[in-house]
Amino acid sequence: MPEKRLLLRKENAMRPTLALPLPGTVRDPLYPDSDGRFMGDTDYHSVAMICLRQGLEDCFADRDDVYVGMNLILYYEQGQPNSRRDPDILVAKGVGKHRRRSFRVWEEKTCPSTLLEVVSASTIAVDLGEKRVLYERLRIPEYFLFDPEARYMKPPLRGFRLRRGKYEELKPAADGSLISKELDLRLVPEGELLRLIDLKTGKPVLTRQEQAERAKERVRIERRRTRQEQQRAEEEKQRAEEEKQRAEEEKRNAAA
Q1: How far is CA 8 from CA 2, 5, 15, 93, in A?
Q2: d(CA 75, CA 80)
Q3: CA gyration radius for the chain?
Q4: Who has greater pLDDT, 1 or 46?
Q5: Which residue would you say has higher pLDDT here, 215 or 164?
Q6: Strands (E), the chain
Q7: Least confident segment among 20-29, 70-79, 167-176, 197-206
Q8: Which of 117, 139, 224, 239 has the most CB atoms within 10 Å of its CB?
């Protein structure tokens, strides 16, 4: 009997363990990936949102425990599929970077640390009203709103930080910027985009377009440097040939 138990333990140890599915990846009809509504955005709204997501992804590229989502449904009560919101930008800490169908708080075992909304005429009332109240109740540490057209909200960037369980509105700097302690970034309105400034370095986070332009400029500079070096090499070669010819001519003259 002891030998049989030992054999069973060995067999169980050799069996591969089944990995649990990652949070938010399993399709569940109770928690749809979409709310079924058509969401029409202006170019101002879409571009600002995409650039913001890309900038945040670049900021946390070396962090495996920070996830940045866009237009992802946030389910905040298990068993209550109507308890959901769809923030424009969601940043969560202490979770994996994997792709998700939705963000389900009970699976992630945490709420997002920061939510951002790019407001428009059709969303500003809900963004400043129902959503702000809900995010405060969910104890989301920070909540920001940005108006890329500067038409529906004055100032165009507003932010709230949780303090003693209640949201306090942040006071903007002279340039209209706000500091996010959760993201360790300064958010600066720059026309239709929201610029991200690294608080540690003071340097701006480049947009993908700016990164591409700088990469092209580096290529142009390298090509120009290569051409200059080739030209100098040709000139050196020509001077060497001329020196050689003069030396040979002097040698012939001396022999004559």
Answers
A1: 10, 5, 11, 41
A2: 8
A3: 30
A4: 46
A5: 164
A6: 66-70, 74-75, 84-85, 89-93, 103-104, 114-118, 142-146, 157-163, 166-169, 178-180, 185-190, 193-198
A7: 20-29
A8: 117
| The token pair that represents 166 in the structure block | 């209640």
Residues 190 and 238 in one domain: no
Interatomic CA distance for residues 144 and 161, integer angstroms: 9
- Strands 89-93 and 66-70, how do they pair? antiparallel
The residue type of 127 is D
Q: Alpha carbon of 43 to those of 62, 122, 192, 193: distances in Å?
A: 30, 14, 10, 12
CB-CB contact of 143 with 159 (8 Å): yes
- List the CATH number of the domain containing 118: 3.90.1570.10
pLDDT for 47-94, tens place per residue?
A: 999 999 999 999 999 999 999 999 999 999 999 999 999 999 999 999
Quote the tokens at residue 218.
Answer: 């580096």
- Please, are residues 50 and 41 in contact by the beta-carbon 8 Å criterion? no
Whose tokens are 């428009």? That residue is 120
Range of the domain at 232: 206-256
Number of folded domains that form the chain: 2
Strands 114-118 and 142-146: parallel
Which range has the worst mean pLDDT, 4-13, 187-196, 208-217? 4-13
Are 144 and 178 in contact by the 8 Å Cβ rule? The answer is yes
Q: pTM of this prediction?
A: 0.75
Residues 173 and 217 occupy one common structural domain:
no
Question: Based on the domain organization, do 213 and 128 belong to the same domain?
Answer: no
Place of tokens 């890309």: 54
> Going by C-beta distance under 8 Å and a sequence separation of 6 or more, which residues neighbour residue 27?
33, 101
